[in-house]
C-alpha cells in the first residue's frame, strides 16, 4: 500500500514527507494507521549517527488505530486503539521474566530493518524501516503483538503517544527500579520528557520529597506544577543544596541527561546507601570516584525503558492518565507531519518538552 512518511537522509538535510510503499502484513503482524507519534531524543541521535544519504523512517512513540491483522493475531481487532513500544522477541530468558527491555535480541530488533528485510520502499530504493519495530513517523506501520498494547478508545492518542518510550522510561525508573516511598528524597536530574514523567510518577505514588534539577527555568516551573517540591536551577552547588534537604541527601536519584558532570553531581548528592539510576545515554565516558561509592555504600544502576513490561505497565499509565495523575497536556505540543522539521528543532532546543507529530 501507499503511505506517507517523513524520511531522514542525515542530520544535515531536512526530513522530507514522501509517498512510500509498505508491504502487506505477515501472519504475525498488525497494520496500524498512525494518529500520533512522539519525538524522542533517540530519534535525533539515530538520525545523526545513520550514514548520510541513506533513507530511514524514524519514530518509536507511535499511537494509532488497527486497520488489519495477520491470521495468527487473535486478540487484536480492526478498529482497536493501540500504543506502540519497542520490539522484543518474547522467547529469551529476560522476555520470559517480563523484562523485555533486556531482550537478548534487543539491538537487532530495534535498530531498524535494512534492504530486503525492510517493509518500506521508495520507488526502487530501499528505505530502512521497522525502527523500534514500528518507524512511526509514517501514516501506517507494521507492528506485532509484542510491541503493541490495546488501550481504551476514549483516551486522546496525541497526549498518550509517548507512553511507549519516554513516559514508561521515567515513570518505570521511579516505580519499578528505584521504588522510593513516603520517607524518601528523590532527585531527578534533567526534566525533559523522561524527567517530567519521573516527577509525575513520584507524585502519583506519594514519594516524600521530589527535587527537580535542570538548567531551564521554564522547565523547572513546569516540574513544580507537576509535583516537584524543590526545584534547583543551574549547575552550581547542586549536590550541596540537595544534601541540605532532609536525610543528608537524596535517598534516590535519576539521571536523564547522560552527561558525565551531571552524573558525578548526582552521585555526590546521594545520601548514605542512596541509589542512582541512569537512563540517559551519554556520549562521554564516565570517570567514577570509587571511594565515593564504597565509603557511603552508594549504588549506581542502569535501566532501559524503566524495567517495565509494556503489556502490563502501559495500561497502568493509561489509568493514571484518566485519573489526572499524568497531565500530559502540559508537556505535549502537536504538529502536523508537514511541520516535522519544526517539531524536531523544538525537541532539540528544549522549547517543547514533548513534540508529537500527527497524521490527518
Ligand atoms: Zn527476548
Ligand atoms: Zn525513545
TrEMBL record:
User: InterPro entries per the record?
Assistant: ADH-like_C, ADH-like_N, ADH_Zn_CS, ER, GroES-like_sf, NAD(P)-bd_dom_sf
- Organism (species): Nocardia bovistercoris
Please report which protein family the annotation says this sequence is part of: Belongs to the zinc-containing alcohol dehydrogenase family.
**Name of the molecule in the record:** NAD(P)-dependent alcohol dehydrogenase
Keywords attached to this entry? Metal-binding, Oxidoreductase, Zinc
| GO MF term set | oxidoreductase activity; zinc ion binding
A Pfam family (short name) is: ADH_N
Looking up CDD domains in the UniProt record yields: benzyl_alcohol_DH
Q: Which cofactor does it need?
A: Zn(2+)
Is Lipid metabolism one of the keywords UniProt gives this record? Answer: no
Q: Which residues form the Enoyl reductase (ER) domain?
A: 10-357
